[in-house]
Design goal:
315 residues, alpha/beta, Rossmann fold, DNA polymerase, domain 1, 2 domains, 7-stranded mixed beta sheet, 13 helices, disordered N terminus, binds S-adenosylmethionine, binds zinc ion
Length: 315
């Protein structure tokens, strides 16, 4: 199968697919929102558990993912919506629904986006430095690298990439961009590698943290995630479930704190005998500890290693 954006096959191994479908407690006639459609793996699993009157709303920012789904999944129970999951409320309404029975977020980039060199996400494959999930607009990674002030770049590399050598890397980038803009993934990966000590290579490719950080900044991956989760939970019917897979600690922290704030919203001082603030729990957390993928799955898919799945139920 090929897709509209390139000749590349749209392959994506769906992380913790059984745990997600079981965790969503799928009802045959329910309405489910896959907020991160990607290669449709999870969506196909959900569809396989639905009866004739069930529906899935598949959301993705990436036009390639939507085009692929349109070509690959001929199923009238699937409604496609190209856009940001931050607008889940609008997506659900425009697809003709009020409330939903389950919502899934499988955060981050798809393997298609990483493996498709021309999208510019990979530090191993040379391509223009792009990294936009939504290629219809917005700033690219090259724009950020060539125009952001040093302090802002450093904060991004440190906070989003937890990069120890961010100062050295930025100094090198700034020297270079004064002569000529950094335009490709290979140029940036080389500058980063040159700025880091040789022993650092033992911890994986020296560019991996900065590339992750840039990707998060380009796509605004952390901004608004907590709000999107809250909106999704508001759309759930009582007993409906939300499942979220996060791939790094920054994302997972947002999921965890958002769930906690909705499960225990009471703001009364601890020594009050009864709650007087009146804030009632909206959810019950099903996964007290995040679920991780099995050894068997980790052997098949390296991406699963860092996955953390959290599930909650609307009260
Ligand atoms: C990890 S992949 C999902 C893979 C999918 N679960 C599967 O089984 O094939 C994440 C997808 O979410 C999309 N995405 C990331 N952030 C998004 C956002 N804010 N709104 C909508 N889609 C987003 C990406 O474009 C990507 O296709
Ligand atoms: Zn209270």
């Amino acid at each position: 199968m090929s897709n509209a954006g390139s000749d590349m096959e749209f392959v994506h191994y769906s992380v913790m697919a059984d745990e997600v479908t079981n965790g969503l407690n799928i009802k045959e006639d329910g309405v489910y929102v896959d907020c991160t459609l990607g290669g449709c793996g999870h969506t196909k699993r959900i569809l396989s558990r639905l009866g004739k009157s069930g529906s899935v709303i598949g959301i993705d920012l990436d036009g390639d993912a939507i085009a692929n789904a349109r070509a690959a999944v001929k199923d009238e129970r699937l409604k496609l919506w190209k856009g940001n999951y931050k607008d889940i409320r609008e997506a659900v309404r425009e697809c003709g629904f009020g409330y939903v029975n389950g919502v899934l977020f499988d955060l981050g980039v798809s393997s298609y986006q990483i493996d498709n060199a021309e999208r510019g996400f990979s530090y191993i494959k040379d391509a223009p430095l792009d990294m936009r999930m939504d290629q219809s607009g917005g700033i690219t990674a090259a724009d950020i690298i060539n125009t952001y002030p040093a302090e802002k770049l450093e904060r991004i590399f440190r906070e989003y990439g937890e990069e120890r050598f961010s100062r050295k890397i930025i100094a090198r980038v700034i020297d270079r961009r004064q002569i000529k803009p950094v335009e490709t993934t290979a140029e940036l990966a080389k500058l980063i590698t040159e700025a880091c000590p040789g022993y650092y290579r033992k911890e994986g490719h020296p560019a991996k943290r900065c590339f992750q950080a840039l990707r998060i900044e380009v796509n605004g991956e952390l901004e608004g995630l907590g709000t999107a989760l809250k909106e999704a939970i508001e759309l759930l019917v009582p007993g409906g479930r939300i499942a979220v897979i996060a791939f790094h600690s920054l994302e997972d922290r947002i999921v965890k704190t958002t769930f906690h704030s909705l499960e225990s919203p009471c703001t009364c001082p601890k020594d009050f005998p009864v709650c007087v603030c009146g804030k009632k729990p909206a959810i019950k957390i099903i996964t007290k500890k995040a679920l991780v993928s099995s050894d068997e799955e980790n052997e098949k898919n390296s991406r699963s290693h860092s996955a953390k799945l959290r599930i909650a139920e609307k009260l």
